[in-house]
Write a sequence for this structure.
């Protein structure tokens, strides 16, 4: 009889597993055969988690951070108090305080628990404002982050934690750092004030379609530029980076830059409606931003494979369904009053 060898599964913790990217990462790592513990202060809102274990923990609290990483080999640190421009530009103190606590606690707990690999989710928001003052900016390469001048406290905290994660290699922890550039896709926040621009536009355009009213509001003149990376590409990049030997921060983003007006037009075309843009004042973030992917192609052979149109179609269809279900529920609640 052939002796059966029991393969010991690698155990991972994903913090922020109740959120958008963390939830997708749980599903991805399950397909790769990992034992996964999800950690968050809330459960995923739109779909049941596939994690082997899901712990409701507040990582600002030291004892809870220790529980989060106990007995695992790898940690993917995605937990953060975050949202779109509206949220980030008006909650500086809370964001800096909470995210610093989350990250200081999680990485130190991981060190004490002898975790081998540690992924930190940084952001394109670390890049200096003075390189992003025009709409047609040069794509941002990793070395552009210094000298530092991030626009908001959110970016300053990300930059500090990048340094923290990098220096934790002194303890033998293999830290990996990604700078995400506007990740989007289904199962992300689409209403309530923390949603990002692709989700907000999908909702506004779906609403315009359902109400037969073409007007949608845009913050600023809509000429500000960004690049948008689909979630499936993002999780593949996270995994490749985590398993690589590369210890410096790396861009994980799309390198096709579009204006906010163009983004709205693409979504309107997917929805099959004509829209009328109404420009109003509101937080716009930097004037232009794009990802330079030279380094991620070179060291990981990673590059985005899902086109903006293809990704937005999936995102739009999901949000239109969510919106219809939301409206129907409200109507039924009114009737039952
Ligand atoms: P998200 O808001 O959907 O997920 C973050 C999760 O962290 C949330 O579920 C939240 O409940 C959880 N969290 C907050 N405070 C916590 C606490 N005290 N203890 C435990 N959990 C806590 O955001 P996301 O889009 O999935 O982003 C994941 C990570 O990637 C974040 O660190 C974010 O800053 C970074 N990032 C995201 C983007 C993007 O475009 N989505 C861009 C740049 C960087």
């Amino acid at each position: 009889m052939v002796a059966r060898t029991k393969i010991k599964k690698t155990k991972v913790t994903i913090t922020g597993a109740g959120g958008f990217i963390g939830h997708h990462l749980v599903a991805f790592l399950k397909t790769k055969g990992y034992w996964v513990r999800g950690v968050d202060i809330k459960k995923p809102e739109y779909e049941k988690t596939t994690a082997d274990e899901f712990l409701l923990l507040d990582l600002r609290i030291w004892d809870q951070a220790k529980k989060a990483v106990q007995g695992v080999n790898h940690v993917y640190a995605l937990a953060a108090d975050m949202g779109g421009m509206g949220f980030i530009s008006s909650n500086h103190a809370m964001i800096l305080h909470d995210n610093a606590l989350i990250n200081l606690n999680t990485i130190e707990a991981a060190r004490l628990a002898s975790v081998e690999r540690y992924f930190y989710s940084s952001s394109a928001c670390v890049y200096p404002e003075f390189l992003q003052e025009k709409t047609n900016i040069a794509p941002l390469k990793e070395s552009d982050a210094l000298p530092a001048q991030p626009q908001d406290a959110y970016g300053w905290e990300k930059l500090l934690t990048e340094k923290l994660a990098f220096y934790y290699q002194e303890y033998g922890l293999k830290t990996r750092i990604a700078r995400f550039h506007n990740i989007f896709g289904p199962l992300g926040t689409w209403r309530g004030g923390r949603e990002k621009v692709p989700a907000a536009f999908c909702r506004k355009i779906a609403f315009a379609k359902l109400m037969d009213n073409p007007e949608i509001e845009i913050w600023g003149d809509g000429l500000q530029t960004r690049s948008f990376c689909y979630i499936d590409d993002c999780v593949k990049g996270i995994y490749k980076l985590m398993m690589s030997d590369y210890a410096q921060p790396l861009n994980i983003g799309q390198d096709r830059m579009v204006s906010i007006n163009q983004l709205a037009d693409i979504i309107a075309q997917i929805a099959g409606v004509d829209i009328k843009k109404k420009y109003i004042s509101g937080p716009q973030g930097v004037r232009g931003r794009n990802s330079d992917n030279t380094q991620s192609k070179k060291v990981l052979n990673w590059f985005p494979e899902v086109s903006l149109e293809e990704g937005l179609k999936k995102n739009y269809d999901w949000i239109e369904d969510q919106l219809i279900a939301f409206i129907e529920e409200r109507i039924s609640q009114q009737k039952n009053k």
